[in-house]
Amino acid sequence: MNTPGLTRRNFLAGLGMAGAAAALGGCATSVSGNSGQSGGAVTVESNLSSPQAKSAMQALIADYDKRGSTQASLNTVASETFRVQLPTYLTSANPPDVYTWYAGSVARSYADKGLLLDLSDVWHTMDDYSPALRSLSTDASGKQIFVPTDYYWWGMFYRKSNFARWGVRPATTWDEFITLCQTLKSHGVAPIGMGAGGSTAWVASAWFDYLDIRINGAQYHRDLLAGKHSFTDPQVRTVFARWKQVLPYFDPQSTAVQFQDATTSLLQNRTGMMLIGTFFADAAPKDALADIDFFQFPIIDPSVPVVEEGPTDGFFASRRSGHAAGTKDFLTYMATAAAQELYVKSSSGTVIPANPKARDAGTPLVAKGKAMLAKAADLTQFFNRDSSDALQPTADAALTQFFDKPDQLDSILSTWQAAATKVWSA
Amino acid sequence: MTRRRIGTVGYHVGVGALSLLWVLPILLVVVTAFRGFDDIAANGVGSLPHSFTLGAFTQAWTDGGEMRAVINSFVVTIPTVVITLALAAMAAFALSRYRVPLRRTLLLLMLGGNLLPPQILLVPVSKLTELLGIYDTLPALIAVQTGFGLGFYTFVLQGFMRTIPDEIQQAAVIDGANTWQVFTRIILPLTRPALAALAALAFTWVFNDLLWSISVLRTDTEMPVTPALLGLQGQYVSMWNVIAAGSVIAAIPTVAVFLRFQRHFVAGLALGAVK
Amino acid sequence: MTVLAPQRFRFPPVLLLFVLVPLLVEGFWVFWPAIQGLYLSFTKWDGITAPQNVGFGNYRAMVGDPVFRKALLDTAIWLVLFGGLSAIGGLGIAVLLQKERRGVGIYRSALFLPVVFSLVATSLIWQAMYQPDGLINKVLGAIGLSGWEHSWLADANTALYAVIVPALWREIGYVMVLYLAGLKAIDPALYEAATVDGASRWQRFTRITLPQLRGVNAVVLSVIVIDSLRSFDVAWALTRGGPYHSSELLSTYMYSTAFQSVQLGYASALAVVIFVLAFGVIVTYLVRAFREAE
Question: Which domain holds residue C168?
Answer without folding.
Answer: 66-293
